[in-house]
Amino acid sequence: MTDEARLVMGDSMDCSKWNRLLRCVVSLLIGGVVTLGAHTALAQISPYAMFSAGHYSGLGVGTGTKSDASGGMTALGGTFGVYDDFVRLGPARFGTDFRGVIQNSANSTPYGNKIAAGLVGFRLDGSGVPLLPFNPYVQAEIGVAGTNNGTSYTKTSSFAYQFQFGGDFTVFPHIAARLEYGAGQLTSSGATNTGHTLQTFGAGIVVRLY
Questions:
Q1: Cβ atoms of 180 and 78 closer than 8 Å
Q2: Tell me, what's the pLDDT at 43?
Q3: What are phi and psi of 159, to 5 degrees?
Q4: What H or E segment, with its residue span, contains residue 133?
Q5: Which residues are within 8 A (CB) of 120 and not within 5 positions of it... i.e. 6 or more apart?
């Protein structure tokens, strides 16, 4: 074989190698675009609003409760937020939830009962489970919550966590009614290092955006 033939053959082999590599890169890019498109199509962003009641309990909570005795207080208000289901896990969906809570029963005590919170976390729901008349979900969230303890005009804030359990009942296409219960704690890093329980009960409307 002449040198020229070997050179031509080598060039052909190099071209073939680069063509295969180019096809592989193009295939990966196309696959990524398709996957991203499918991911976006599966995402479901849904804002919601609920009337909610918060029950806060623990040592020293509530007007007239001594610091070494357990008490409680209840505040009424609203919970507002949005969730995004962006990963499908078989019949379930996994996503995130962001919410704010504002509750204030001003005339309930001399100081009023006040609770406010901002929470963010993860959610898992059964929106893909067949034959269910509603969409059940569970969430785990952390954030900051403030309360006046029922004994002060001002609120004190601390780290908070809560687990929420609920269900969305479809009323119209893209519209659902919601019932929810949540339980968690507000923790104090002070000398007492105590934790107080925060329970919430909510009912409201969810708007499903696609």
A1: no
A2: 59
A3: -65, 140
A4: none
A5: 96, 97, 98, 99, 141, 142, 143
Look at residues 206, 196, 202 and name the one whose alpha carbon lies nearest to residue 59: 196
The larger pLDDT score, comparing residue 45 to residue 100, is at: 100
Structure tokens at 204: 């409201």
DSSP state of 91: T
The pLDDT of residue 162 is: 97
Query: pTM of the full predicted structure?
Result: 0.75
DSSP conformation class of 90? T
Q: How many Å apart are CA 117 and CA 79, to the nearest integer?
A: 9
Q: Is 206 exposed, middle or buried (0-12, 13-18, 19+ CB in 10 A)?
A: buried
pLDDT in tens, 72-97: 999 999 999 999 988 888 888 999 99
Cα distance between the two ends of the chain: 65
The per-residue pLDDT for range 3-17, each reduced to its tens digit, is 554 444 444 444 455
pLDDT of residue 117: 96
E strands of the chain, at which residues? Answer: 44-59, 70-89, 92-105, 113-125, 135-147, 156-172, 175-187, 195-207
Residue 25 region by backbone torsions, left for phi larger than 0, else alpha for psi between -120 and 50, else beta: alpha
Give the distance, in angstroms, between the CA of residue 29 and the centroid of all CA atoms in the same chain. Answer: 31
Residues 6 or more apart whose CB falls under 8 angstroms from that of 77 comprise 51, 52, 53, 54, 101, 102, 103, 104, 105, 115
